[in-house]
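Supplementary notes (optional reading)

For those who missed the lab, this is the record we used. Protein: N-acetyl-gamma-glutamyl-phosphate reductase. Length: 339 residues.
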Amino acid sequence: MTVQIAILGASGFVGGELLRLCVGHPDFAPVRLFGDSQAGAAIDKAHPHLALAYPGMRFETYEESALDGIDLVFAALPHGASQAIAGTIIDRDIAFVDLGADFRLRDPAVYETWYGEPHRAPDLLGHFVYGIPEIARAEIAKTRCVAAAGCYPTATILALKPLVDAGLIDPKSIIVDAASGVSGAGRGLKESTHFNAIAESYSAYGLVSHRHTAEMEASLGATVLFTPHLAPMNRGILATCYGTATGPMAADAPLEALRAAYADEPFVHVSETPPSTKWTLGSNAAHITARYDPRTGRVLAISAIDNLVKGAAGQMIQCANIMLGLDETAGLGTCGVHP
C-alpha cells in the first residue's frame, strides 16, 4: 500500500520533520509539497539535510486541484489557516491530520476566548478527533480527520492524565512549568528568538494566557496554571507538573499509576529516573516519571519529548497510521540520538 501524501507547510520545521520521517516509512510517499513562501524552490533550499532523499522535488503553491489523487494531507500551518481549506479536504474524503490549533477545541466559544477571534468553520469541528494516540486511539481509528495535539499539551497530558483519572490529584490544583527548544517558535525570524536573545538565557513567556492551556484543561477536565519557558536548545520539551494529592499515598503510587496506564504503549517510557530532553532527540518517545511528596502533600510528574517529533510530526504520523489501519509504529523511532 502506497499512500500518496500532500504536506501543507512543507517548508517549515515541522514540514521538514514530516519529510525526514516519511523517508523511513514503508507506505508513505510525499508527492505534493506546498510551501507558498518557497514556491518553485528545490526542497534542499529549505531542508539541505533532505537533499539525497528528495532529489528534484520542489515546493509549490497550494491549489485545490493539486489534491487530485492524494490519499492523506498533513497540514503544518499557522493557527487560522486550516479553517479555510479543511472543508475542501473533508468534501473530497481525504484523510486529514492537522497540526494547527483550528480544530483542537470542540467549543467555538472557547476557541474565541483563547485565540481572540471567532472560529470561521465551527460546523467542521465535529469532524475532528483530538490527536494523542495514547489517550484517544479508538476514536482516531474511526475518523478521517485528526487535530493533532500541541507540543506542550502532549507532554503535559501524558504526564498528568493517568494521575487525574486515578483520582490521585485534585484537578483544580494543577500547575505546569514547561520549557521548549527554540524550534517550537517556528522558522520565521523573530527578535525574541535570535541567537543573541536565546543563547545563555532562560525566559518565561505567555504568562497566565498561553493558548495551549485550553487543550490541557479540556483533555484533563482540570484547571491548569501553565507557564511556558524558552530554553537555549534547538529541540525538546520538559514539562514539570504539580498537583495537590487527594490524600496520603505511597511515594511511588503516581509512578505505578503511570506504569499501569502506559504498560503497552510503544512510545512511552515510565521510569524512576527523572527524564532529559536529550534522551528523546529525534524520536517519537515520551519519557515520564512521577512522585508523591508527603511533606507538601503534592504529586510531581515530569515528562520529556522532542517537540518536533512526538510534539508535532511524529504524532501526526502516528495518528495517520492508526487512522489508515497501518502499523502504528511505522516510520517512527523510539530511540533518541545521544550524545
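If you only remember one thing from this example: The longest helix spans residues 151-165.
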